[in-house]
From TrEMBL:
Coiled-coil residues: none
Location of the GST C-terminal domain: 83-200
Gene3D superfamilies: 1.20.1050.10, Glutaredoxin
Lineage: Bacteria, Pseudomonadati, Spirochaetota, Spirochaetia, Leptospirales
Ranges for domain GST N-terminal: 1-81
InterPro entries: Glutathione-S-Trfase_C-like (IPR010987), Glutathione-S-Trfase_C_sf (IPR036282), Glutathione_S-Trfase (IPR040079), Glutathione_S-Trfase_N (IPR004045), GST_C (IPR004046), Thioredoxin-like_sf (IPR036249)
Protein name: Glutathione S-transferase family protein
Length: 200
């Protein structure tokens, strides 16, 4: 299998992390979003949506959308609960990540870390802070109850939300007000086979 991604992207990092935890072999194809690598004719043949990550199989099949790929890779593993309700809770957190977390924290990170908060995006950046803190509070409430987002062990829910949360300071989010999130981040980083974000 080949994974096409940008090492700076949290959505791409998720796949590296789950592949490391599950010892899944793959070839990493590094792309640079800012350089237009996802807009080339050859890439658009693989994913007409022009987004990464994608998973390319040896037989030519392509799977896109980070959480869909995560669920495929983790099928049958301890990262995806067998109990239907707990499995649905994992999906609940993954939908939360894509709709209530990533659009705020990841975008704020891009505006600050990569663009330096240009004046024409300052209002947008400040609005992202509100949504991002709302998402972090939701996570903090759950992590006050359980060590991981779906109970006592790590699941895909944690991997999905860890990717951008652990670098949220690059988007201006101060995690000192979220002690349970900080403990959760450390818990994941202490896992055997943990892989830092910029590893290729």
């Amino acid at each position: 299998m080949k994974i096409y991604g940008d090492s700076q992207s949290g959505n791409c990092y998720k796949l590296k992390l789950v592949a490391s935890f599950l010892k899944i072999p793959y070839e990493w194809i590094e792309l640079d979003i800012k350089n237009g690598d996802t807009k080339t004719e050859s890439f658009l043949k693989l994913n007409p949506n022009g987004k990464i990550p994608i998973l390319l199989f040896d037989d030519g099949r392509v799977l896109s959308e980070s959480n869909a790929i995560l669920n495929f890779l983790a099928e049958g593993s301890e990262l995806l609960p067998k109990d239907p309700f707990e499995k649905a809770k994992v999906l609940q957190w993954q939908f939360f990540e894509q709709y209530s977390h990533e659009p705020y924290i990841a975008v704020a990170r891009f505006i600050q870390h990569y663009l330096g908060i240009p004046e024409d995006r300052r209002v947008e950046y400040e609005s992202k802070q509100v949504g991002g803190h709302k998402a972090l509070k939701v996570m903090e409430i759950q992590l006050e109850k359980t060590p991981y987002l779906v109970g006592d062990s790590m699941t895909l829910a944690d991997i999905s939300l860890f990717a951008y949360t652990h670098v949220s300071h690059e988007g201006g989010f101060d995690l000192s007000q979220y002690p349970k999130i900080k403990e959760w981040i450390q818990r994941i980083q202490n896992q055997k086979l943990f892989l830092p974000m910029n590893s290729i």
